[in-house]
Amino acid sequence: MPSDEDQIRQLVATWMAATRAGDVETVLGLMTDDVVFLIPGRAPMRKEEFAAASRPPSGQAGPKIEGTSDIQEIQVAGDWAFLWTKLSVKVTPPDGGQSMERAGHTLTVLRKVDGRWLLARDANLLAPVTRPQ
After folding, report:
1. pLDDT in tens for each of the 133 residues of the chain?
2. Is 50 helix (H, G, I), strand (E, B) or coil?
3. In the chain, how many domains are there?
4. Where residue 116 sits, what CATH number does that domain have?
5. Is residue 23, in this structure, part of any structural domain at all?
6. Do the domain assignments include residue 133?
């Protein structure tokens, strides 16, 4: 049986791969029903809002999302764990328009539910990436 840390690393890898593939259902399956996302300048976002924001309108393609997550630390305490990462994300609209890049840190709290680690809280501190002109 993989260690808790290995399972958490696999959750992050699965999340990133599913995001790249546009597989919203897999991503939703990696979070608790009471998940809360904290994003600067916005009200806390719950699972239903995350799902609505992640699904493209019917019959339309979703954006292309690329990213990297570099785990800096994982701590496990019973059925709870936290990790912080360096995350970078690039989102390109389906029409090939102007990409948006954000990078920074995240602090994530996980909870073990029925033997599986799931994302329960996430504080996303990503800021726009600016490139010299």
Report:
1. 899 999 999 999 999 999 999 999 999 999 999 999 999 999 999 999 999 999 988 888 889 999 999 999 999 999 999 999 999 999 999 988 899 999 999 999 999 999 999 999 999 999 999 877 7
2. helix
3. 1
4. 3.10.450.50
5. yes
6. no
What gap in Å lies between CA 17 and CA 9, rounded to an integer?
A: 12
Q: 19, 65 in Cβ contact below 8 A?
A: yes
What values do phi and psi take at 6, rounded to 5? -65, -40
Look at residue 59 and tell me if it is in a domain: no
Q: Is residue 32 part of a domain?
A: yes
Q: Which residues contact 25 (CB under 8 A, 6 or more apart)?
A: none
pTM beyond 0.90: yes
